[in-house]
Amino acid sequence: MTDKKKVQIAIGKRIKMLRENKNISQQDIAGLCNIEKSNFSRLEAGNTNPTIYTLSIIAKHLNIPLSELVDIKN
User: Fold this and answer.
1) What secondary structure does DSSP assign to 2-51, as a single string?
2) Residue 43's CB: how many other CB atoms inside 10 A?
3) 34-71 pLDDT, tens per residue?
4) Which of 15, 45, 54, 62 is least enclosed, having the fewest CB within 10 Å?
């Protein structure tokens, strides 16, 4: 597995954990972020490489700082 894929998976897991901790459904957060649910699902699974802008929108709607969203251990 490449380093890029590892980071994508770690970010996806982090988003999923933070979303679930706030009891927000995937459908709801995807709608708030104006992202198709299928694309949001791919993001959480680590199958896409989100832009920093996309991550900032997700952080905004999770009501957390962007730095908390990308706080992963490699």
Assistant:
1) -HHHHHHHHHHHHHHHHHHHTT--HHHHHHHTT--HHHHHHHHTT-S---
2) 24
3) 999 999 999 999 999 999 999 999 999 999 999 999 98
4) 45
